[in-house]
Amino acid sequence: MTETNENKQLLHLVFGGELSSLEEVQFRDLNDLDIVGIFPDYASALVAWKAKAQATVDNAHMRYFIVHMHRLLNPSEK
C-alpha cells in the first residue's frame, strides 16, 4: 500500500527541559526531560510546543523544542 502526500505522516517530537546556561543547549538534568509527545504533523506539534513554552515562561532556563523526526527517519526525503 502506497501513501499519498495527503495522508503521509510527518512525525514531530516535542520535548523540553531546563538548560544549564542560557548560552547553549545543554540540559541541566537529562532525567528531568519533559517528553511532551510525538505528533503526526508540524501544526499539531506547534500547538503543543506553544502550550508548554507559555506554561513555563517564568523560568528563563526552561526550553522546549520541536524535532522533525520524519527528516531523521528518511534523510533522503525533503
From TrEMBL:
Please give one Pfam family short name. DUF4170
Organism's domain of life?
Answer: Bacteria
Alphabetized InterPro entries for the sequence? DUF4170
Protein known as? Inositol monophosphatase
